[in-house]
Amino acid sequence: MNGNAQSATGASIMLLAVFLAAWQWGPGLFHIPPFIVPPLSDVAHEFVHAWRFDHLLLHTGVTVAEVLAGFILGSLLGAVVGYLLGMSPAAELALSPYILALQIAPKVAFAPLFILWMGFTVYPKILVAILIVFFPVMVNVLTAVRTVDPDLINLARAFKATRPQIFWKIEFPTSMPPMFAGLRIGATLAVVGVVVGELVGGNMGLGYLLTFGEGQANTPLVFVAIVMLTLVGGIAYLGVILIEQRVLHYLPARAVGGNL
Amino acid sequence: MSDVVRLEYRNVTMRFAQSGNRGVLTAVRDVSFAVRDGEVVSLIGPSGCGKSTLLNIGSGLAAPSQGEAFVDGERVAGPNAHVAFMLQKDLLLPWRTVDENVMFGVEIQGVPAAERMKRSQALLANFNLAEFSNHYPHQLSGGMRQRVALARTLAVDPHVLLLDEPFSAVDAQTRMVLQRDLAQILRQARKTALLITHDLAEAVTLSDRVLVMSRRPGTIIDEIAIDMPQRDDPIARRHDPKVNDYVALLMDRLGIGHAALEPAGGAA
What is the crossing angle of helices A123-146 and A89-104, to 10°? Predict the structure, then answer.
């Protein structure tokens, strides 16, 4: 840790303090009514209230579980399809227009459809998350497999490597850094997918709490839900970075993690 | 050096279909030569004359359109354990330590772990890299990386080494040290080698013979025996004035310096 990083951390903490102070006293100063922007203390008070009477922890837990399930399944599916298409140029060529079409379609627009199919359960939310996480992971893995140095493959072939050996010893490890770049994007997108699903239908999760707060004109509760969602997304992102740093430990220090 | 032939090309011709129906390109035409056990032969020629194509054929990565290649008297029909190649790029795997990179080939070939470790440690000690065995490639200099690549090539204990401009990406001083290391190891281990190079002095100081190839379609136009002692010490050879004579001879054979022989945009 050097002086530069320390002063940057100091500046970040200062900014947070200024932001929180502005939140607390800004609305009063500019005569903004509390139902538009409630001061920080109101939101904190509502947080305690929601925790005790509105099952805030339960709603957060449901959202976290949906995010985790959607993220894990979506990344697995994206990685597997990415590897398969990467190893079969013919299949990629045949499927590429449909993949492109699905990628362009706004995935959150499928949320009402999934709720029609599966009802007010956790499944439509997970499905939206899977769909939204799938693409960045798949595209990154596909590109990585496609761009492996052919000389590396030839080196392995010259040692009489079998097809599975080439995959496990060359292609799979080569794809790790781009895959983690995709996973980082996926971690934050998973939260978006789940929240949209919860907004559209159901009576559980932080997305539901958002619409519930809105319906009651309870602005502080809406803020509480937004803060909790940001926390969930941030923790998911941090989790991916921690795993990435362990898996990609062999890279020069600066190349891993990147900026938060 | 014995009279046993380790590597042989017989009437090898290689054609490639060009993209966009632009016909067929003949990269190599009717190439025949043999490399005896323990011999080091260099292959020089203009860019694009098919030198690397010959290397791919020898290592079994490409099949010739006509003719055949033989290693240890057996026709090359695919990659085989008697040949190993090394390129200008070190091709080290960034996620493997130096030690694990050296063991890459023997691991694929299914050599038992204990034997792999033994070979890797012996080679790394030989190349003064023992203390770096747990380092990752990005922590090494270019010259060290290339030595690790050479150790990986030797770890599979091949009879024949195919070397495609192995030192052209390192700086001039490091290159001389690497050339000496290679020359010594080739002599000690009695390895047979085919060396592709653009560096005429490298060809002269490292080889027993130099084969000169023509512009595409590449074919062998001359063969020059290097009649000098100390093939295992290229740095000592460099002090011999005969090196300059051989280099001048090779330049003459390649047509370097005869401006009229170079058609515009001819070399690709």
Answer: 140
